[in-house]
Amino acid sequence: MNCLLYRRIKIFIFDVETLGKRSHSVILSMACIHFKPEDKPNHKALFEGAFFAKFDVKDQMKRLHRVAGKSTMEWWAKQCLNAKTKSFTPCPADEIFEDGYERMRAWANEKNDPTAWVFARGNLDQLVLDDIEEQIGLEPVFKYARWRDVRTAVDFLYDTHDGYVKVETPPWMDKFDPALHITKHNPIDDCVFDAMMMLYGAKNERTN
Question: 203 pLDDT band (50/70/90 cuts)?
Answer without folding.
Answer: confident
